[in-house]
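Appendix B. Chain record.
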Amino acid sequence: MKKIILLTWFFIIFTSCSKNIYGKYNTSYSRDKSAFFQIILNSDNSVEKTEIHTISNFANGKFILKDERVICYLDSSKFGYPPDTLIFKIKGNRLYPIRKGIISKKLYLKKDSSL
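Structure tokens predicted for this chain:
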């Protein structure tokens, strides 16, 4: 009986620690529908950024995982903007942007569960 309890406990801990971070994260939850920001994390470590506000900006690149953080290295966009680096903290199904070492709790990207 103890082995079953230990095995169950180990399985619960193991499955809760292995997160599937791949997918679409966006600001569709926001009441402000005039602005939209989306990050797509693919299983081949590629990332796609879509930003729509007064202008549209699309960029592709690569990302790495480091200490529960997603670091996105984006190439130049097709509109000529310079390369960019975005850093996010992973917490549940949300990505919180990190700027100058500070995690922003007001803005986050929520994982799209419709996939």
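Further analysis of this model is presented in Appendix C.
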